Structure formats: C-alpha cells, structure tokens
Amino acid sequence: MRARLSVILLFSATMGLAGFLLFQVQPMLAKFILPWFGGSATTWTVCMLFFQCALLLGYAYAYAVTQPLTLRTQAILQIGILVAAVLLFLPITPSDALKPVDSKAPVWRIISLLGSYVGMPYIVLSTTSPLLQRWLGHLDKKLLASRFFAISNFGSFLGLLSYPFVFEPFMTTLDQTKLWSYAFDAYALLFAGCAIVVAMSPSGAKLELSDDAGASQARHKRSFPLWLLYSALGSVLLLATTNQIAQWSAVVPFLWVLPLSIYLLTFVFAFGHQRAYRRTPYLVAFVALAVLSQYLARPESSEDLLLQLGLQCATLFAGCMICHGEMVRLQPPTRDLPRFYMAVALGGALGGAVVTLLAPLIFRDFYEHSLAIAAIAGLAFRLDRRRLEPKAPPLPRYALLAALAVFIAGVGRAVYGEMSNEGSIVERVRNFYGVVKVYKTDEDDPQEYSFAMQQAGVDQGSQYQAAAKRRLPACAYDEQSGIGLALRFQKKRRGADPNAPLRVGIIGLGAGMAAAHGRPGDVLRYYELNPAVTKLAIRHFSFLQDGLARVEIAEGDGRILLERESQGGASQKFDVLIIDAFRGASPPMHLMTREAFDVYLRHLQQDGILAINFELDTFEMAPLHRGLAGAFGMKVNWFETDEERPGCDEVSSWALYSRDAGLWAVPEVKEAISDWRDESTSKLVWTDNSANLMSIITW
What we know:
By secondary structure, the protein is of the alpha/beta class. It is built from 22 helices and 11 strands. The protein has helices at 2-33, 42-66, 71-89, 106-126, 128-139, 148-167, 173-199, 213-247, 253-272, 279-293, 302-329, 337-362, 368-383, 394-422, 482-488, 531-540, 543-546, 558-565, 594-603, 622-631, 661-665, 667-672; strands at residues 425-431, 434-441, 450-455, 458-464, 503-507, 523-528, 550-555, 574-579, 604-614, 635-639, 653-658. The strands form 2 sheets. The chain has a 7-stranded mixed beta sheet with strand order 7-6-5-8-9-11-10, sandwiched between helices. Strands 1-2-3-4 form a 4-stranded antiparallel beta sheet, covered by helices on one side. Helix 1 runs antiparallel to helix 2 (42-66). It starts with a helix and ends in a 27-residue tail after the last helix.
C-alpha cells in the first residue's frame, strides 16, 4: 500500500510539474519576444498557436507509441528523448541575433523562433499526461487515470497565475528563462523515476485489448468529431476573447494569463468535478453575459476596464464550461485516453489556427469572437432542445425560452450595429498588427467633414477634407501643442533664422499629421511598424504629399531600426525625435526602457528635443517620464492638450525631454507647461528585463 501510494505521488508530482512548466513558459517567452515584434497583441495569439501545435505533436507521439510498443520500450525511449532535450535545448533563452530586420512575415518568424528554442522541451512536456495516465492505468487498473488530467491542469493553472504575481515582478526575463530550464531538469529526473517504475513492473508487455475493445473503439470513433468540435470551439473562444481584451487594454502578461487560466480552470472542473457541470444553467448564464457585454463601450478608466474584464472572463468561463463539460461526458475508458487527448489537442490547434491564420484572411475585423459565442450558444440550445418542449419542467423551460429570446435579440443587435457602421467606413485592413480603418466623420458639415484613422478603437490622426483646411493638423498636433512647440522653438530656430531646417525622426506614422509642420529644407524620417498604416496614410491622407519637408519612411519596429542604424557609431543626428507610437490602448513597453532611451540619445543632437505622446486614463506615465529623464540627465515637462479647444474630441498630450535649458525659458513654452497629473515627484525606470505595465496602471 505504501509503495502504491509513493508511486501515485511520484506520478502526480511529475504531471503537476509538467503542467506548471507547460503553461508558465508561454507568457514568459511571449513577453521575452514581444518587443521584437513591436509590442503587437497578436504576438501572444501566435505564441498560443505554436504551443497548441506543439501540444498536439506531443499527444500524437504519445498515442503512436502506446499502440505498437511495450511499456518497457516506451519508458526507455522517453528517457532517451529527455536526455536529448536537456542536452540540446537548454537553456531556452532566445538570442538577440534573431530580432527581425523588418516587419515581414511576423507569424512565421515567431513560430520558427519558438520552435528553435523551446520546441522539443515543450513537446516532451506535453507527452507527460497521456503517457503517465496510460502507464498508471496499467499499474493499477482500479485507478481512474483520467482524474490525473485534473492534476496536470491544476499545475498549469498555478504556473500561469504565479507568473504575473511571483516571477514577472521580481525576476528579469533572462533569469526567468534560466530558472525554467533548471526546473525542466528537475522534471526530467522525476519523469525518469516514473519510467524506471514502469520498466521494472512485472509485466512489460503491451496492453491487450479486452473482448469488447473493438466495440469500444467503434463507439468512440464516432465521438472523435465531437471531441474535436468542442475542443476547437473552446480554443476559438479563448483566443478571440484574448484578442477582444487586447483591443481595449494593455499588452501585458497578466491579461494574457487571466483568460488562459480561466480556460484551464474549466478543464479542472470538467475533468475533476464532473458533477459541477449542468448544461441549462451554464447556457442561460453564457447567453446573458455575452449579450450584456455588447452594451459596454470601450473602457475609459480603470473601473471600466475591470468591469469589462470581469464580464469578458465570466463569459469565457461559462462558454468553455459548456464546451469542456460536453466533451468530458463523451470521454472514453482508460485504454482510449491517448486518442481522446490527441483529439483535444488537435481541436485546440485547429481553433488557434482559425483565430491566428484564417480569421485575418477572411474577416476585416475581429468577428470571430461574436461567431464563436453564437456557435457555442447555438450548439448548446440544440443539445438542450428537449427542455424547450411543452412537457418539460416549467422552470428550466422558461429559463431556456428567455435565454433563447435574449440570444436572438443579441444576434440581431450585433448584425444591425455592424451594418449601420459600414456606411462610414472608407477602408479597413486587418493584419498581424490588428485592424486599421479609415472612416468619415461630420459628413453633414462641409467645414468639419474629415477622414480619421483608427486602430484598437483609438484615433491615429485625422484630416479635414475641405480644401482650405486640409493642411491643418488636429489640435493635439497644432502649433500650440507639445510637438508644435518643440518644432517651433528647437534651438536652431531660436536664433536668427526661425525657419532653419531641422532633421526630425518620428516613430509612428498614423495619418502623418506631423508632416504638416514641415518647412522647406526639413527632413522627416518616419519609422512605421504596420505596413497597412503606411498604405492607408498615403492612400487617404495628403499630409505626407502636401508637406514642405522631404519625407522618408522606414518600415519596421522603430527601436530595432534605430539600433541597427546606430551600429558602428553612426547617428541620424535628429534635432527632434518624436515617439508617437503610444496612441492606442496598448503602449509598447520596449519604447520606454533605459535601453530604448540610450538608443534614442545616440540619434539625438546634444541640444535636441525628445517628444513622447501618450494619452490613456488607465495608465499613469508621469513617474516613468521623471525617472527616465533623471537617469539620462535631462529635464522633462508635461504639456497637456486642452480638451475645451475646438476640434479636441480625441486629445493627446506630450512629454518633452531636453538638455537645452534655453527651451524652458521661452515664454510660450514656459506658459504651456502643465502640472503632472499624478501630483507627485515619484520616479520609475524600466529596463528591457524588468518592465511591467502593472507598475503604472491607475487603480
């Protein structure tokens, strides 16, 4: 009895640690490479697709070796694979040499990068649960081995939640990858112990199928498409919800981890507490939550953000409980578990492929979220259709009828809302970096009629269409704004020649409004990550063509391009460097670190001005501005855009950095300086290895 208990504990510890490592490595490596791909929220979903495919390969391997090989042979083979993974792939720290040189093919670059560094260790980890459960079922036929799947998922749950609260705040990303590699060594030792127990068991022969095995396999072969469908729908809902959250919040591991943790929690409940799932209550709750979420606008404050986040996560939980609860009801006996898990993994990978690869090709916006909700609700209504019959118990029947009415009304509202907005859309493009649209505003007023560019629900610039006003930038970019003051009173222009030519660098193109300030002889060099933004700025806005300055556009991540341009001591010698890549819900953290500022200053003249644009109520950047200015011996001031000025519906304020003491003495500049919003003097400095958006969120 003691020996049996020790074996169970050994197998349980191995599965728990494997689950922990499987899911902690996901946000860890996604955060590590996020700056390499411009801080795009899609980086996470591509990473998820890779890990889902790797999980599928692991499950497929486990299914393949359990059929023709004896348990002893399986154990020996797995030990050999573990040794190879430890010797050839650890540590899993990606090399800086793999940073992309441009913005082309980001999806396949991410997949290739992850495959090179963590592919084999991850596949090995993913074989753990199906193999050990099968082996346990052989060692003790009275054990319900599938319950150990809940142990693996609980370990995964802990691995995810511990990352943003325990590991990310207190360890650099480099140290995180090293610690994970050491933990993988410990896992390898535990798994080797399990393999030795199996290899030394009295019977090393492969399992014989019982007399009813053929009937069992035939029955569960019919269930395979349903396993696949339920798993795929849960995966689509997870990734689509994560994308939805990322459109109005930050690209931060906590907001990756939270939906994925909820997704895993539904596995824990579905497999470990099967009685917790009741179809009708979850269906009614799912429909109510999903329809309610349609009525909430993009959050403008931390309170709104938390409300939206809670509602989206509750909807995800109810939807995934439906998918996974129905799937578990169809789970096979122990002998068929590898096939079942392979179907679960295949469905997850297919769902990931739908959201990451297929949806951007066939949808112009993030429609997959609404479609996933409709598909899950429709399927659940079909499964529960008998409760809608007149002879069904009244309480569940009335609840389902009400939910069905709400569902139909919600679908109708969503379709109507989308159709009513189509008339104002000039062009919409979706790619790896998100959805960018150009739309018309104030069509009834010829003087105010404008085209505006929008990404993640936030305007990226606009232009009047009236000929007399086409060269006028929006109020946050006019001559009284922070950027206007920087360009008017840069040191070269405070002398005898107020029109002295300037060399200006701009990270972030948007509609190109900064070009409206260009004067003859100026050079404006833009760095734009998203190719769609460049195309739309040229196609639908005329700031770049009408401006008097010479305009250059370099496509790619601005920081990475500037790093390469500074190799060998070269410098762009900018008089003004504008960081205008923050006008959205997801500020790229890698543009606000000590290392990033070191790159900026290599390209900035000694008396130059660094202008940084940011406007989002959910974050307070003031401590970061003050800390970075102090770290580099610069002075920084805040220039608030007055919302009461005409045309200032979408404002954006500026922080100006400079070592030029004369700039702050200019009367117009001195008068425009605003108080810091946090009314504090606290300072914060991020580095590439220790940047955390949670440190500036406004609670």
